[in-house]
Design a protein that fits this description.
Number of helices: 2
Order of helices and strands: EEEEEHH
Distance between the termini: 38 Å
Shape: elongated
Strand order of the largest sheet: 1-2-5-4-3
Structural class: alpha+beta
Radius of gyration: 16 Å
Mean pLDDT: 80
Oligomer: single chain
Helix content: 25-40%
Length: 81
């Protein structure tokens, strides 16, 4: 199965799905909405406020794998590692 990932910067939402149609969606956790097919199987999820939720994780992963890039990004933001 091939997943499709789409980020919308205007709404700051990250959508991950398998391309199959789903229902209107049901909140399953804070900022997380799941969409189900007619068999109640998850076909996609939407993460609301994605940049806010993922920023700490992404900064940590970038810092581990690319310390020079992370230092540069954080310096531009007025932060340090």
């Amino acid at each position: 199965m091939k997943l499709k990932i789409y980020y919308d910067p205007e709404t700051d939402t990250l959508d991950i799905g398998n391309g199959r149609p789903g229902n209107d969606g049901q909140p399953v956790a804070e900022r997380l909405v799941a969409f189900f097919d007619e068999n109640d199987e998850v076909v996609s999820i939407t993460l609301e406020n994605a940049s806010e939720v993922l920023a700490p994780f992404l900064k940590e992963r970038i810092a581990e794998q690319y310390p020079n890039i992370a230092t540069s990004i954080l310096r531009d933001e007025g932060q340090t590692l």
